[in-house]
Design brief:
Layout: H1 3-8, E1 14-16, H2 25-33, E2 38-41, H3 47-60, E3 65-70, H4 76-86, E4 90-94, H5 99-107, E5 111-116, H6 119-128, E6 133-136, E7 142-143, H7 149-159, E8 164-167, H8 173-182, E9 186-189, H9 191-194, H10 203-211, E10 217-220, E11 228-231, H11 234-244, H12 248-255, H13 258-264, H14 287-294
Parallel strand pairs: 1-9, 2-3, 3-4, 4-5, 5-6, 6-8, 8-9
Antiparallel strand pairs: 7-11, 10-11
Length: about 300
């Protein structure tokens, strides 16, 4: 057991990232049943859709799970109300500052795990009452910051006393063990769980991850303050071109519906969000095997 395992009442200190369109009930329930913490990705869910997914998870498992609130989502405030009403055990947050509602959430008995990109953010959120901190480096897929995981995790661990979760570029036991050596109490993974049997995405998406190497992704959108990491495909090339030309309108037009196209398997026009850890993944596995393989043996 680690401090994170005890905090969240889970067997293994492994959290599944709350990825939009990917982290739905089947995947979340499978991770929680395997002893980790499954997390619903609510970024594009309406409140009614989120409530339905929460109920699906509860029908599939009685173990703890969470909901990710992406604070740039148009639904996040309504979804926060759903989470409070449903008494979901854990909230993770990203793309914004949750300090304004941490007290209310904790009073409802819900654990709060904000994602940060700097040690200063971690310090402020610890003071605001966060239960643990997710330190995510720029190796991760989807929205990214500026600091690498190795440096960020160590800096955050030195800055706060609450448990720290390492994220970004972690896909196996070696990464898990390295995170613990840096001072983290557990890990969060996204890309590794996309390449699982339970992830409700096209087989195309999963095979792309398995065939990728550590240089198969590209950062896009930083010029427009929406930095993301995705697979290098035809869409990514067009996005890089639009960013180079400073054409934010074209960039947004290209991104519209692109994640949905990726989940459905459009290899040319989909935005396949994935981290550099794709280069470490060589097979599609059941979630239970992924969790146990990453956290073996779980040492305190």
């Amino acid at each position: 057991m680690t401090r994170l395992s005890e905090l969240l009442n889970i067997e293994y200190p492994v959290i599944q990232g709350g990825m939009a369109r990917v982290s739905t009930a089947d995947l979340v329930a499978a991770v929680s049943e395997a002893g980790g913490l499954g997390v619903l990705g609510s970024a594009i869910m309406t409140p009614d859709e989120l409530r339905l997914e929460i109920h699906k998870v509860r029908r599939a498992t009685g173990k703890p799970f969470g909901v990710n609130l992406m604070l740039q989502s148009p639904y996040w405030e309504q979804n926060l109300r759903v989470v409070l009403a449903e008494k979901v055990p854990v909230i993770t947050t990203g793309a914004g500052n949750p300090a304004g509602f941490i007290k209310e959430v904790k009073e409802a008995g819900i654990k709060v795990l904000p994602l940060v990109g700097s040690a200063n953010q971690a310090i402020l959120l610890e003071k605001a009452g966060a239960d643990a901190i997710i330190a995510e480096g720029k190796e991760s897929g989807g929205h990214i910051g500026d600091v690498t995981t190795f440096v960020l995790v160590r800096a955050v661990c030195q800055a706060v006393r609450i448990p720290v979760i390492a994220a970004g570029g972690i896909a196996d036991y070696a990464g898990f063990k390295a995170a613990l050596e840096l001072g983290a109490s557990g890990v969060q993974m996204g890309t590794r769980f996309i390449a699982s049997q339970e992830a409700a995405v096209s087989s195309v998406y999963k095979e792309i991850i398995v065939k990728a190497n550590e240089r198969s992704t590209v950062e896009v959108g930083k010029r427009f303050k929406h930095a993301m990491r995705m697979w290098k495909n035809a869409l990514a090339s067009k996005l890089v071109e639009a960013e180079y030309e400073g054409d934010e309108q074209r960039f947004e037009e290209l991104m519209r519906g692109a994640l949905k196209r990726a989940v459905e398997g459009d290899a040319d026009h989909g935005a396949f969000m994935m981290g550099q850890s794709a280069g470490l993944i060589n097979e599609i596995l059941p979630v239970a095997d992924i969790v146990k393989n990453v956290a073996r043996p779980c040492v305190s």
